[in-house]
């Protein structure tokens, strides 16, 4: 039987992505993402709880994240959960990462919401549109 490991998060970056490259030149972007939920506590008071997620993006997606994402930017991340461990000073540490497979930026231009620059300039197709035909 096959399994499914799928995560979808909507949240805000806690810091600018940290960019690195592997020895073979593959881009790696790491950043934190905050998600919040509101609920009513046992005492009847409205509360809010924020969870922090460690996001890792690889290759082309990492380069896009490094170029366009910034602290405060709201994004949708689709990916999978990966567990790992490492040893430091004789102590074993465990990690939980979200490996991003897709990223979508939300919100418009503004602080932490840099708009991507177009790959080609906007304008009429070759041959142009006479200015007299523009309806405004």
Descriptive tags:
single chain; mainly beta; five-stranded mixed barrel; globular
Question: Topology of this protein?
Answer:
Layout: E1 7-13, E2 18-21, E3 27-40, E4 46-58, H1 59-68, E5 74-88, E6 91-105
Parallel strand pairs: 4-6
Antiparallel strand pairs: 1-3, 1-5, 2-3, 3-4, 5-6
Explain what you see:
The protein has 136 residues and is mainly beta. 7% of the residues lie in helices and 50% in strands. A five-stranded mixed beta barrel has the order 1-3-4-6-5. The chain starts with 6 loop residues before the first strand and ends in a 31-residue tail after the last strand. Residues 112-136 have low confidence and may be disordered.
Structural class: mainly beta
Give the proportion of residues in helices.
under 10%
What is the number of strand segments? 6
The global form is globular
Placed side by side, the strands forming the largest sheet appear as 1-3-4-6-5
End-to-end Cα distance, whole Å, is 60 Å
Total number of helical segments? 1
Q: Major sheet, described briefly?
A: 5 strands, mixed, barrel
Summarize the structure.
The protein is about 5% helix and about 50% strand. With about 140 residues, the chain is mainly beta.
């Amino acid at each position: 039987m096959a399994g499914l490991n799928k995560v979808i998060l909507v949240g805000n970056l806690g810091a600018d992505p940290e960019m690195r490259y592997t020895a073979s030149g593959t881009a790696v972007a790491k950043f934190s993402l905050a998600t919040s939920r509101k609920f009513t506590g046992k005492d009847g008071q409205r509360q809010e709880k924020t969870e922090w997620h460690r996001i890792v993006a690889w290759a082309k997606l990492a380069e896009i994240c490094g170029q366009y994402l910034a602290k405060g930017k709201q994004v949708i991340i689709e990916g999978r959960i990966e567990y790992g461990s490492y040893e430091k000073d004789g102590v074993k540490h465990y990690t939980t990462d979200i490996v991003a497979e897709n990223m979508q930026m939300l919100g418009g231009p503004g602080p932490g919401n840099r708009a991507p620059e177009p790959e080609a300039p906007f304008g009429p197709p070759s041959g142009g549109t006479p200015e007299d035909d523009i309806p405004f």
